[in-house]
Design a protein that fits this description.
single chain, about 300 residues, mainly alpha, 2 domains, elongated
């Protein structure tokens, strides 16, 4: 959701008007009272009630997502805009309600939760302005995130077939056994001048782990420049023209794998802030209810 959309302008204007009006009202009340602005004053209670109700409205977005049909016939994008701008207004009203006074421990916790919830929401909003653009620029074919692992395994199967067409299944299995023994410290890989053995060894030691691991960031082939150098060395092997075409296809598979890994990382950044924002939001509403009850009865 971009804040530069034309449909955001009425919400931005409304938010600014409410912030300005409530700020002026706060200043007038603060100057008119000898003890300054207090949360228990009439205006202070209105500010607190407004902040709480707007919190509840913002939290209703998550209830709305539980239903397949539109809740109360309100389009979800309107709920999203309301969640953003009215959620920010709720934090503003809570700060006005406090009047610069931290109160007891419960009030201090509510105060901190309000700030953290607002900051995590703003951080998520900033991510939504830039990460989708990075996805559009750097990812040629973006996939639904749930399909990434399936496509990754499909790329692995394609590479297996291409490598077998170059080396043969027998040589490939033999190199895999030698690589496992060497990795476990049970033996050493034998040197050979056979180009297909070199390629099979490259596949087993570097290419297959790169395609098979869910997070290939630490592997050399994940670096595009290093990958080009490696495949340039592979093409220097004494391979036939048909085998070189297979190598080209495998290099394309590696590029596709890098894009899947990048997409996964960008999607993680795009949604990771929710891990903090959602629980803090509901904790804020719950403690606000406790604060309201204790203020009335105690």
């Amino acid at each position: 959701m971009l804040v530069t959309e034309k449909k955001q302008r009425p919400w931005i204007a409304l938010t600014l008007i409410v912030v300005l009006t409530s700020g002026i009202l706060y200043a007038l009340v603060h100057r008119s009272r000898s003890d300054g602005f207090t949360a228990g004053s009439t205006v202070g209670l209105y500010f607190g009630a407004a902040g709480f109700l707007l919190m509840v409205f913002a939290a209703m977005l998550w209830v709305n997502r539980l239903f397949k049909k539109r809740w109360l016939l309100v389009p979800r994008r309107i709920w999203m805009r309301g969640h953003l701008w009215l959620g920010l207004l709720s934090a503003w009203f809570v700060l006005l309600h406090c009047g610069g006074r931290m109160g007891g421990k419960l009030e201090q916790i509510v105060y901190v939760l309000t700030i953290v919830t607002a900051l995590t929401g703003i951080y998520g909003l900033l991510l939504q302005q830039f990460v989708p653009r990075l996805l559009n620029v750097q990812i040629d074919r973006e996939l639904p995130q749930l399909q990434v692992d399936h496509v990754r395994m499909d790329l692995l199967r394609q590479s297996n077939k291409l490598v077998e067409s170059i080396c043969g299944s027998g040589l490939l299995e033999s190199e895999m056994m030698r690589w496992r023994e060497n990795r476990d410290g049970a033996g050493q890989l034998e040197n050979t001048d056979d180009p297909k053995s070199h390629f099979a060894r490259f596949y087993v030691a570097e290419l297959r782990p790169f395609l098979n691991t869910p997070d290939p960031r630490s592997l050399r082939l994940n670096d595009r420049l290093i990958s080009k150098q490696i495949f340039g060395q592979v093409r220097a092997f004494d391979l036939s023209a048909a085998d070189v075409q297979c190598v080209d296809q495998i290099e394309d598979i590696c590029e596709r794998r890098r894009q899947l890994a990048l997409q996964t990382r960008l999607h993680w950044h795009l949604h990771s802030w929710l891990v903090l924002h959602v629980p803090f939001s509901f904790a804020l509403i719950a403690l606000s209810c406790v604060h309201a009850v204790m203020s009335v009865y105690y």
